[in-house]
Amino acid sequence: MKFxxxxxxxxxxxYIAYNTxxxxxxxxxxxxxxxxxxxxxxxxxxxxxxxxxxxxKIPQCLKADPxxxxxxxxxxxxxxxxxxxxxxxxxxxxDSLMRQYKRGNTYISESQLKKIExxxxxxxxxxxxxxxx
Length: 133
Hints:
The protein is an alpha+beta fold. The protein has helices at 34-50, 72-78, 84-91, 95-103, 110-129, and strands at residues 4-9, 15-19, 28-31, 67-70. The chain folds into two domains: 1-80; 82-133. It contains five helices and four strands.
């Protein structure tokens, strides 16, 4: 079992990473950047695993690579190579609205989130299949 970990930008501008799918085991990581929050989360995994006595079975999720989910602010901070305005145009969302989504200034509907996620997956598939000459 893998940790599903959400990464979100907090109101103070810092980032938090926390697991969402393992009952009885809650870990967090925080930092000024997404990378710092992820590193702190990995450190929390390591520290919790070290608390188990020899012979005790360490939960498998502490040995596996987490699966990260991002809010939009965290996504664009972590993947800074993505230009918010260009990406908005690519997925067919007004660039001003996309910047508001990124800042967390406005509500994002499920259909808009799906449109954004589908756009990310499309780009990923295209990058994965392209070859340079």
